[in-house]
Amino acid sequence: MVRIICGGRDAGKTRRIVEWHRLTGCGDGLCMPKAFSAGRFLGYDVMRLSSGEARPLARCSAALPPGFPAADRVGAYVFSAAGLAYAAGIIDELIASGASPLYLDEVGPLELGGGGFAPPLRRILAAGRDLVITVRPGLLQEVMGEFRLAGAEVVRLRRTAL
């Protein structure tokens, strides 16, 4: 079964994935919490749900540290080659271990272009694992078409107050 958590910016998609993983106590995967330093938003990290271990994933162009291993760019964000490799390695490990469900936060423009988490996502789907992903509303239909998710259950979130 594929479940898609669909919500806009700050609707609680990442929080929902973390809660579902914690409440079910099974499976594993990745979430993308916001990264801050001294109260300043830097971008996003990639974090393994079961361990809390995290790596930088995407940084705002304006917050890019020297030597950041850039792999891709989407809008104002630069994606880390090391962060993407870390995430792909975890997904491959989880597929090999038989973990289920697998969680992947967030599938967006980078994946629709074939980059980012697109290759690991395709491997998850080919392995037939139960899967929970997050997607923004404006990309839902395109993601469902690109990754052949027509039978997926869609859970729609409303924007939360910050």
CATH superfamily grouping: P-loop containing nucleotide triphosphate hydrolases
Tally of structural domains? 1
Give the C-level CATH assignment: Alpha Beta
Largest sheet: 10 strands, mixed
Please compute the radius of gyration using only Cα atoms.
15 Å
CATH topology: Rossmann fold
CATH arch. level architecture: 3-Layer(aba) Sandwich
Number of strands: 10
Overall mean confidence score, pLDDT: 93
List keywords for this structure.
162 residues, alpha/beta, Rossmann fold, 10-stranded mixed sheet, 5 helices, 31% helix, 31% strand, globular
Explain what this protein looks like in three dimensions.
- By secondary structure, the protein is α/β, with parallel strands linked by helices.
- It has one domain: 3-Layer(aba) Sandwich (Rossmann fold), CATH 3.40.50.300.
- It is built from five helices and ten strands; from the N terminus they run E-H-E-E-E-E-E-E-H-E-H-H-E-H-E.
- The protein has helices at residues 13-24, 81-97, 109-112, 118-127, 140-146, and strands at residues 2-6, 28-31, 34-37, 40-48, 54-60, 70-74, 77-80, 102-104, 131-135, 153-156.
- Strands 1, 2, 3, 4, 5, 6, 7, 8, 9 and 10 form a ten-stranded mixed beta sheet that branches.
- Strand 6 and strand 7 (77-80) form a beta hairpin.
- Helix 2 (81-97) runs parallel beside helix 4 (118-127).
- The longest helix is centred in the middle third of the chain and has 17 residues, at 81-97.
- It is globular.
